[in-house]
Amino acid sequence: MRVLITGASGDIGAAIAEKLANPGYIMYLHYHKNNERAEEVRKQCEAAGAEAFCLQADLTMTEGAAKLVEQLFTPVDIIIHVAGHSLQGLFTQTTDDELMDVMMVHLFNPIKITRALLPTMINQQSGKVIGLSSIWGVIGASNEVLYSTAKAGLNGFIKSLAKEVALSGVQVNAVAPGAIDTSMLAVYSSEELEALKLDIPAGRLGSPTDIAETVSFLASNRADYINGQIIEVNGAWN
Predict the structure, then answer these.
(1) Which CATH superfamily is domain 2-233 in?
(2) Is residue 86 pLDDT above 90, yes or no?
(3) Known catalytic residue: 147?
């Protein structure tokens, strides 16, 4: 099994990589800046018996998808789009550069990567495409308008593509996390995080492992009849 994970140096990407790594697997671990963390994830995957390779590309750039794809030396059976970053602030104060960065990393380059790798999946009549969306892509969020819009676009891509390739044996789904305990929440104070937990019916933040478990299920043959779905993992927050 050959797996590509974008954003594998991040908290959620690393958890997914370490969950999926098994003997016989080839893991392609994309990162942008954090080579040290990517190497740690690679070693963890290899300790689990997988072959693992780190691939560097800046997915905020127009050419990011092409740079990533050209580093692959085998076809891919599973694509997991995790790379991304949040952008907070008033919509009227966002810049054109911020707009393009957010759309590139969360929407345009995932689309381009999938387009490049999908023909092999269709030819082999099997494959998985899994996107990491967000609760804000489902319900929207003030002060995160661009991020919410990009994730909503990703959801539309997932649902539409699934209808197009289902007959070819390819499943296309996404996971939409709620508030997950990662570095993305570092902008919040401890008091704000405690208030956030009180707002979540489960009474806690999610963990990267919670998301990795869901992605692992979608990547398995146990989920072969699940297609075109946005699976919300949010402790009943929404």
Answers:
(1) NAD(P)-binding Rossmann-like Domain (3.40.50.720)
(2) no
(3) yes
